[in-house]
Amino acid sequence: MSYMVQKLLVLLLVGPGWSWWRKETGPTTTCSSSGSSYCDRSDRGLSSVPHDLPKSITSLHLGRNAITSISSSDLSSIPSGAFSNLPSLYFLTLLGNGLSNIQTGAFSNLPKLERLYLNINNLTKIHPDSFSNLRKLRTLDLGSNQISNIDSDMLNNCPNKPYWLRTFYSVC
């Protein structure tokens, strides 16, 4: 078999699976606006949360990107209320981003959020009011971080008292 035929055969067999190789690097990434409630922007090299997400999504996956800080004052990362235009969001994953900071207001205006995955990051502490507005939060995964202490008052405004998955600290 000639070299060119072998190359063509490899491209035909593997071609569609190479979508992981093309990484989108900016916040202009969009999800389908055709009514889909699922949006996966994992493994895209994103450094910030996309701003043009449809309001109808309920599940947002931003895992394994380059989002390093969730802060109310750092506009180069995730500012306060970054997800506020997603009132239907009930599932959010930011796992494996290298997050090192989460401040008050980062998850504000998410009245339906039930599952939040912040595992496999570089978090060392959590501000006591980080999750104060998440009244429906049921699952919070902080596993595989470097958190040494969690304020016992952190979940006072969460009536469901979320389950802590794979972390050193259990509230349930």
From TrEMBL:
Pfam family membership, one = LRR_8
Signal peptide positions are 1-19
What keywords is this UniProt entry annotated with?
Answer: Leucine-rich repeat, Repeat, Signal
Q: Which PROSITE patterns does its entry note?
A: LRR
Keyword Flavoprotein listed? The answer is no
List the protein's name: Decorin-like
